[in-house]
Design brief:
The protein is α+β, with helices and mostly antiparallel strands. The chain contains six helices and nine strands; from the N terminus they run H-H-E-E-E-E-H-H-H-E-E-E-E-H-E. It has two domains: about 140 residues, no CATH class; about 80 residues. The longest helix has about 40 residues. The two termini are about 25 Å apart.
Length: about 250
């Protein structure tokens, strides 16, 4: 593998680990801050716990689907964020629902009395800034790796086309379909080999295809004349991962 590409991949993996660690650290910090801010309300439901996720705090009694209430942030580009509560309202006919109603009321009262409570809960920390920087770095690494892979594919295509034009038979590890025109039946199916039969002239070639049905079938050879080279190049490009020179 390209040494530069390998270095980029390793750096991307290291960055991903840093991001994962910071996400955990940020979650702990936000949950601690949120629990302190909502302490008067949470004390009414001691068995509940506060869980922070991206743009949301959930007060839960257990697993993922045991939410009593959630505090959410909504933010649109160019606008100041807003905050809202999701109370999961339902029929109040049990001790659980009554206790949830009391908790919801206490939290709603706190938001009513402090218009900045939502902003305080979701206020960004240095961890958020570090995560933003690492996310930007990760995206830049992704772009660099992608561009390098596209260049590798382009170089590989040039190489395989050169081998094809020099008369090498190109063999595929799996059956592939070769579309050589735009009409309904301009497709050869279950191709396992392709070979050039003449020197390309004005972008047109004759090719020999080897096709094979089931594994027990004998290979079948057919010749296609006056095929545009652009179709051959596209075919080879689409199947670069599977192609190899015939031995």
């Amino acid at each position: 593998m390209n040494i530069i590409k390998q270095t980029l991949i390793e750096k991307k993996e290291a960055t991903a680990k840093q991001i994962d660690a910071l996400l955990i650290e940020r979650q702990i910090a936000f949950e601690s801050r949120g629990a302190e801010l909502l302490k008067p309300a949470l004390e009414t439901y001691p068995e509940a716990n506060l869980v922070y996720q991206y743009d949301s705090f959930q007060v839960r009694t257990g697993g993922k689907y045991s939410d009593l209430i959630s505090i959410n942030k909504r933010e649109y580009y160019g606008e100041a964020p807003t905050f809202y509560l999701n109370t999961y309202s339902t029929t109040i006919d049990s001790e659980f629902e009554l206790k949830r109603l009391i908790l919801n009321g206490r939290i709603a009262e706190m938001f009513l009395n402090d218009s900045d409570l939502g902003a305080k809960m979701f206020e960004k920390t240095d961890l958020c800034l570090q995560l933003n920087d690492l996310s930007d770095e990760s995206r830049a690494l992704d772009r660099a790796i992608y561009e390098m892979e596209m260049q590798e594919q382009a170089d590989k295509l040039v190489d395989v086309v050169k081998r094809f034009e020099s008369g090498d038979e190109i063999e595929f590890s799996k059956h592939v379909d070769f579309t050589f025109g735009y009409r309904r039946y301009d497709t050869a199916v279950r191709v396992i080999k392709i070979k050039l039969m003449n020197t390309p002239k004005k972008g047109v070639v004759n090719v020999e295809l080897t096709t094979k049905g089931w594994s027990t079938d004998e290979p079948h050879i057919q010749t296609l004349n006056s095929i545009k080279m652009k179709y051959v190049e596209r075919f080879l490009h689409e199947n670069l991962a599977k192609e190899k020179s015939a031995s």
